[in-house]
Predict the structure.
Amino acid sequence: MTAIAERGAASAAGLRLAAPKGAFSFDSLSVALKALRVNALRSALTMLGIIIGVGAVIVMVAIGSGAHQRVAEQIRSLGANLIILLPGAVTTGGARLGTGTRPTLTEDDAIAIARELPIIEVAAPTVRGQVQVVFGNQNWSSWALGVTNDYLVAREWNIADGRTFTPEEMSAAAKVTLIGKTVAEKLFGDGDPLGQIIRIRHVPFTIIGVLEKKGQSTQGADQDDVLLTPMTTAKRRLLGYSGTRAKAVGSVMVKVVEGESMKDAEEQIRDLLRQRHKLQPKDEDDVNIRNLADIMETREQSSRVLSLLLLAVASVSLIVGGIGIMNIMLVSVTERTREIGLRMAVGARGRDILVQFLVEAVTLSLIGGSVGIVLGIAGSIVIAIFAGWPTLIQPWAIVVAFLFSGAVGVFFGFYPAKKASELDPIEALRFE
């Protein structure tokens, strides 16, 4: 009993000297740490909820941010300010055969869009087909695209090595090609493909350039698994466009001038094509217009909703941890009632006791928050390595999680601390 009284007197004296107005002090922090060390296992279990909550918040935000960044990168890889035009559908015997079954889009449409609409930077027509490519004893199935040089501008696709098509090659249907990184790796490995002759559908082509790596599209397709040839070459020598289809194209990539409204560009393109195709007001559009800005916005909204949902789920752990802290602090007040009475008896004021127990609760939360930050960062890295999910650790999430853990300590620790500060010293000393 004498030892307890001495310890209580020393603690009370420390509180009076270090914090005469009930403010936080390093002495109160020292006393709080000593009190937590007395029941180290119980303190560790109490912090477990905060540790899990903070760690979960950091991991969930990292996963959500990684997914958001991945979507944004995939959209950007298609090209900025890009609108894609696709041929319309044809109806036969009452059955609609789907997009692209009607050759309603032509090279002349692309030329008119680029020439007549100042809001448009380039309009690049394309045709495509799957082909078998052979070099020596290596072969690979890939996609051949007939394009103009405007296609590279629209897609913001640079040449890693080599050059683009010359006007003479475009007009003469020259047998030259640009290949993607995937095709280069499959056919040549670490070798240099420039100047090599490959056979595309048994037709010899000379490689004049290698495209920069683009990665996966928003649908997960490998954008680097491609060969680009002049439009005239693809139509005449590879894909068999002739007769009524001689001018038809599979799509048109339209790049809008930077800073201009994508919605306005979309409306102007629609009006121009309806005029060119002589459609009546009651007729449906015969060309499908896909605004990638809308797709990106939709994907970003989905990512944001996912991130908020994950964050809300993780925050529940913090609240549960706070309830655990309140529970343990209430138990601690009951266990230390006689000690509180002794402190008050030798001069400690109610606000000194309030601050002391509040510091203990906040210390529990902040220690748990610090451990949770370490585990959250480690967990994000492990998930990225072993699960293959893209994660992006956000500094703001670490700061917010840490501050929120401190706020949880203040919120859930205030009631037990206030209860301890309002104890009657005489009744507390009589407590058994």
